[in-house]
Amino acid sequence: MEEDYIVDPLPENLTMSQIKMQKEKRTKKANVMSCLFDSVSQTILTWIMTLKSPKESWDYLKGEYEENKRIRGMKVLNLIREFELKRIKEF
Question: N or C: which end of the chain has fewer CB within 10 A?
Fold first, then answer.
């Protein structure tokens, strides 16, 4: 969900295309939220259930779990070190 949008209330003189468009927007938001809810653990679900939109939920998850380059670099170095230690022990 790259952008957030608000589903506006329907105007008085409705056309079928306006009704269809609003239904599609509501359905899309609901489907995205459902996918997010199904994809996370119960603990994380309780954190994002209170957020109002899929964009808010996605941004929260992204900020919480996206690592910066420094952390990734440190993890790579640790994995290399572990690998080298295992190779040394094998000889």
Answer: C
Is 54:36 a contact under the CB 8 Å cutoff? Answer: yes
90 belongs to a structural domain: no
Across the range 13-18, mean pLDDT stands at 80
Residue 10 lies in a domain: no
**Domain limits at 55?**
16-66
Burial 53-63 (b: 16+ CB within 10 A, else e): ebbebbebbee
What does the pLDDT look like over 16-75, one tens digit per residue? 888 888 888 788 888 888 888 888 888 888 888 888 888 898 888 888 877 777 888 888
Task: Count CB-CB contacts under 10 A for residue 33.
Answer: 19
What is the spatial distance between Cα 52 and Cα 62, in angstroms, rounded to a whole number? 16
